[in-house]
Structures are given as structure tokens and as C-alpha cells.
Amino acid sequence: MPIADATLVNTPDIEIWPGGLLHARSNRDARALSRARHVLRRKRDGQYLAAELPEGLLPLVPRLMHEPGIDVALDVLDTLHAHPRRRPHRYSELPLDRLHERLHSLGLDDGYGAGTGLPLVAEPERLALAGVDRYRRPLWLHGQAARAWEHMRQAALRDDVVLEAISGYRSHA
Questions:
Q1: pTM for this predicted structure
Q2: Taking the domains of the chain in order of start, what are their residue ranges?
Q3: What digits encode the pLDDT tens for the residues 77-120?
């Protein structure tokens, strides 16, 4: 079944996945995920928080409204349905403050990027579905990277070379 809007929307604490891509961890989740238009997933541990069903939001955890970042995620979810033709397809970035917090929790200072030669990279606000990786997981990439990956993969196939992705986007969490 094709995914109508194959875009992952990122908030600082919660990812909003389009329905039809996630695998259930229990029978209750399986029933909810099979009908979900979107699924809210906690970034730090991958826990499914809620499924947006045609009849409304189904919490998949107790005390959903106490989840850090739930207000932001629900606001974003509301905008996904308001004026879908006018919804922005931009690829902006989330603030770097969460990455700084993560580095500090690991005992690393703000000079980590300069010291390693690896710049600190913000998480994208939206990611495009670029197929699946070698392990049949959804492959999320920046929109331009998703298009480039598909062009490169098609060009390689014309030369009888099969390219497989191993992994795509990973959150700072």
C-alpha cells in the first residue's frame, strides 16, 4: 500500500511518522498501527506514544499528555491536516540546543565539533522516504539526498550494479 504522505516530521522530542511504516510490538499496537494515519514516536527510545486514527488520537502510553514535547508534536500534527495544499515542503532544521545537551551529558564540551573536525549538524525538520534499507527499514533522508540516492541507484542499475543503503537518518537521541 503506497504511503500518501511519505514524510517524517521531526520535533525536538517526538517524531511524527506516516501510518503504514512501523511494526507493532504487541497485538494492541498492531491493531492501532494498521489503521493509523500518523504515529507519534519518542525519539530517545523509539517508544510509540500515540496513533492518530480516523476517529481521533489513541494514546499508546499512560499519561500521554505528560510526555516531554507532546504539545509541540500535537501542534505539528494539527498543521499536517490544515490546508494540505499549502503545507510547506521546506527542509528546515531544528535548533542545535538538544545536540549541545547530549554532548554535555556525555561529558563533551562545545569544542567537540572543532576538535574532531566534524561539524555539529542540526536535525532536519522533515525527512523524505527514500525506500527501504538492506534490513527492510524505512530509509529516511533529506529531500535532496533522497532524490540523489534514487538517481544514483538507477544509474548503477543500468550498469548492472545493485546499491543498498544500510541506514539513513538517526536522531541526536
A1: 0.79
A2: 7-86
A3: 998 877 555 444 455 677 787 788 888 888 888 787 788 888 88
Residue 93 β-bridge partners = 124
Residues 6+ positions from 44 with CB-CB distance below 8 Å = 13, 173
User: pLDDT band at 26, cuts 50/70/90?
Assistant: confident
pLDDT at 84: 55
Per the CB < 8 A criterion, the answer to whether 8 and 164 are in contact is no
119-131 per-position pLDDT tens digit = 888 888 899 999 9
Q: Which of 8, 1, 4 is nearest to 140 (CA)?
A: 8
Render the chain in DSSP notation, one character per residue: ---SS-EEEE-SSEEEEETTSPPPSSHHHHHHHHH-SEEEEETTT--EEEEEETTEEEESSTTGGGSTTHHHHHHHHHHHHSSGGG------B--THHHHHHHHHTT--TTHHHHHT----PPBSEEEEEEE-TTS-EEEE-HHHHHHHHHHHHHHHHTT-------------
CA 131 – CA 128 distance, rounded (Å): 9
Under 8 Å between Cβ of 7 and 128: yes
